[in-house]
Amino acid sequence: MGKSRIQNNNLFGRSMDFLSDTEFAVFCFAQMLPNVCDVREQYPLNLLEHPCDISTYLVSKLSKNTKGTLEIANSLGISHPRVKKNGEAVDWVMTTDLLVTIKDPIAGYQLLALSVKDKASDQLSERQINLLQLEREYWTIQGVNWLLITPEVYCKSVAVTLKTYAPYAISDSMVDKDLITKAMNLIPLMNEMPLSKILLLLEDALNVSQGIAQKVFWQGVWKGVIPINLRRKPTPLSQINLLSYEDFWLQNPVVAGRSSCL
What we know:
Trna Endonuclease, Chain: A, domain 1, 262 residues, 12 strands, 10 helices, two-stranded antiparallel sheet, 4-stranded mixed beta sheet, single chain, alpha+beta
């Protein structure tokens, strides 16, 4: 899956530890979700009956208990993972790769669970599939949507583009929202314009430095207000191609809700 990485994240005010480049790429997809307010990596699943996981945000859910992985594994006929600790076999605490929290203005707090694999679902072992089924059931019985993100459901070049430009979008200081709003008025001029000229356009129109112009552009892309074709990684001299908003979001498997089948 590639090397692990630690990524600073200004939006959430902390450093985040990803087990692989693939996981980081899916995190980039997840952070583009409208109204996302948190993404927790390697989220532990409770072994035993416990309050619904959404109760972290909704106190009203504290009184509603849900099954832990041990009971779910038993009901599914799946052997729960175990590990040796101090010479004894103990039940292993499973994790979900990324747990996304969304604060919808109407529906309120919602969770979205993402499991990440770097190979196609038909290449997974029977044991891997069983454990994914267990994880899926853990979230399904809580009414939480669960997606299995594998290379089948996204374009690799899109992931490369997001990983490359993530420092401007999520790892550095966030620009004033007014700058992005003003940049939206320039979007019709950006189509088929080289990235270097777009940045000059933003510098002049917004009266900002090139560094700020880079942040305005990529934070606008992350928010979906500058809908560019992400399949071709932009370079200073390459043309930027605009897409419809619908086609832009289809590049993102998390926003589009695409999931591999088990």
